[in-house]
Amino acid sequence: MVDALARLALLLVLAWCLGGAPAPAAAEFSGVDYTLTNQNEQDFSGQDLANTSFAGAAGRHADFSGANLHGAILTQAAFPEASFAGADLSGVLMDKVDFSGADFTGADLSDVIASGSNFSGATVTNADFTGALIDRVDQRLLCRDAEGTHPLTGADTRLSLGC
Hints:
By secondary structure, this protein is mainly alpha-helical. Helix content is 20%, strand content 0%. The chain is built from three helices and no strands. The protein is globular, with a radius of gyration of 14 Å. Mean pLDDT is 87; it is low at 1-28.
């Protein structure tokens, strides 16, 4: 556990140094810790899950639409075909996560760290990726179908992805 926390801290510091973004604050878990749990097909829609941990969790077909996940930790989890439509995912650590087929329509993914994640088949219409750290391969894949403007931030999806 200590080794995993040390690696996480190193990753965050490295991302801060490379991106010039403000250093992220330490996560303060405000709710239930869902680390390493099975959340397949669970309904979290509209819930306040800010700074919650879903590290290593399974969430196939889970519904996070409209949820506040700001600052959450989703690292090394699996959320294939989950819905994050309209969710606030800003500042989320989502490295090495399976998001294949997930719906991010209208989601705020600004300042996320998503290195090593899988976004194949994901929908990103009207999503905001401003300041996001995403692998080049995923960025190119998402750019193929990216379109629209985020309804709250006004960010153009393609521009925020660097398409």
